């Protein structure tokens, strides 16, 4: 008779193996691209850490956080709905989707330009206006590649998606290092972010023609409503998720100043850079993976096995980083960071990454099952709770902020993962039972 712990171990290994089989190719291309990209960014960040002061990191954090918050609302405004459609619907909606993409990106550009002056005035730093304005111009480029990227995601061409991400990261890091060495200061971080969008567009468009559109006459308002009806809740969910992930930047900058924000931004990126890259790759592949399913049992198996697989990848990486933190940070990035709280902040933020895949999995499961409103409410509630906790922690120290983030995620994300699973599969089981009774 097998011992209980042996049965548990065997079941866990079967889940992990199943997850690698189901998401294997997608995760391999996206994960390897993200991992390689993060290594490249790591090398670039070594140069930046030795050349730039914490204040520069703080300024970059303000500009990039603003861009990320606004950009998040545009990324899946049409793609989330298009990926779920059959071939005929997909082709018919492409023209209207293109109009929506341009409209939303123009609005995003305008919002960022309008925000530049109030933000610069709030931080008493007028030098922030021009970098924010330059980053806003990125939104005028994105629609040129959005439909092509959607086609690659819909067709599960994760090799191309991963290649686009990798080349973006490689060129971004190379340009950043070159410009930093040339003395461009904050522009060494900002300018490459805009220029590499051309790389992303070129790779997604290469040998990837759009289907012949049935609605070539232009925009169809009924289709726009269909796209926005599904896309707006998804975009709002993504926005609240991004806000949750960046709320610590906003509050640290507000309560503790730009220099403290620079230390926190530095520690956050070197501690969670690799693991968050893997988790984002997982989320991208997971949504497409879940949208192609046959039965409730098949969906449940995909969900559990995929979580087991991503945890098997990320946990060892995070634990290794945590164990080596005291040696790793000063050796690689320089002794000047020893006079700050960077190492301790690094450690607690790194450990917070252990449960972050659970939140990503729960979010994609809800979206793939049309429960975008539920996902939005969960992310909004979690963001509010996290903001309160971090706001209180900011009254003490950066280390307290990092500890609060870690504890908050350890408590909430497993609960959200369990709740989402029960929400989706309880509903599906009830519908199945009703169908069988009829």
TrEMBL record:
It is a multi-pass membrane protein. The chain crosses the membrane at residues 57-78, 99-120, 126-149, 170-203, 303-322, 342-359, 380-399, 405-421. It is found in: Cell membrane. Keywords: Cell membrane, Membrane, Transmembrane, Transmembrane helix. One of its GO terms (cellular component) is plasma membrane. The keyword Transcription regulation does not apply. It holds the Pfam family Polysacc_synt_3. InterPro entries: Poly_Biosynth_Transport. It comes from the Bacteria. Belongs to the polysaccharide synthase family. This is Oligosaccharide flippase family protein. It comes from Shewanella holmiensis.
């Amino acid at each position: 008779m097998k011992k209980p712990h042996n049965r548990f171990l065997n079941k866990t290994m079967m889940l992990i193996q199943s997850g690698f089989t189901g998401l294997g190719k997608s995760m391999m291309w996206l994960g390897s691209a993200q991992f390689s990209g993060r290594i490249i960014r790591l090398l670039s960040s070594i140069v930046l850490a030795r050349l730039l002061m914490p204040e520069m990191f703080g300024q970059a954090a303000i500009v990039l956080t603003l861009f990320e918050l606004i950009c998040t609302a545009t990324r899946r405004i049409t793609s989330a709905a298009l990926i779920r459609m059959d071939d005929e619907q997909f082709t018919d909606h492409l023209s209207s989707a293109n109009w929506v993409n341009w409209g939303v990106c123009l609005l995003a550009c305008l919002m960022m330009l309008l925000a530049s002056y109030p933000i610069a005035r709030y931080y008493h730093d007028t030098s922030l206006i021009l970098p924010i304005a330059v980053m806003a111009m990125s939104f005028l480029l994105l629609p040129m590649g959005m439909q092509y990227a959607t086609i690659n995601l819909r067709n599960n061409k994760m090799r191309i998606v991963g290649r686009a991400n990798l080349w973006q990261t490689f060129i971004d890091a190379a340009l950043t290092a070159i410009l930093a060495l040339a003395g461009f200061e904050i522009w060494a971080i900002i300018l490459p972010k805009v220029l590499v969008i051309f790389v992303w567009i070129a790779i997604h468009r290469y040998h990837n023609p759009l289907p012949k559109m049935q609605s070539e006459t232009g925009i169809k308002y009924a289709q726009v409503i269909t796209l926005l009806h599904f896309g707006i809740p998804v975009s709002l969910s993504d926005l609240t998720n991004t806000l949750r992930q960046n709320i610590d930047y906003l509050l640290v900058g507000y309560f503790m100043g730009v220099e403290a924000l620079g230390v926190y931004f530095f520690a956050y990126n070197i501690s969670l850079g690799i693991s968050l890259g893997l988790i984002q790759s997982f989320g991208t592949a997971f949504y497409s993976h879940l949208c192609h399913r046959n039965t409730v049992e098949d969906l449940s198996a995909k969900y559990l096995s995929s979580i087991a697989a991503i945890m098997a990848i990320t946990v060892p990486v995070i634990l290794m980083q945590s164990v080596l933190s005291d040696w790793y940070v000063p050796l690689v990035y320089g002794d000047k960071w020893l006079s700050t709280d960077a190492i301790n902040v690094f450690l607690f933020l790194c450990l917070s990454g252990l449960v972050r895949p659970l939140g990503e999995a729960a979010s994609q499961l809800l979206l793939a099952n049309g429960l975008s409103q539920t996902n939005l409410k969960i992310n909004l509630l979690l963001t509010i709770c996290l903001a309160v906790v971090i706001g209180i922690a900011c009254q003490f120290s950066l280390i307290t902020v990092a500890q609060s983030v870690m504890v908050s995620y350890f408590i909430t994300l497993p609960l959200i993962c369990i709740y989402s699973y029960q929400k989706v599969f309880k509903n599906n089981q009830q519908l199945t039972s009703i169908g069988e009774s009829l």
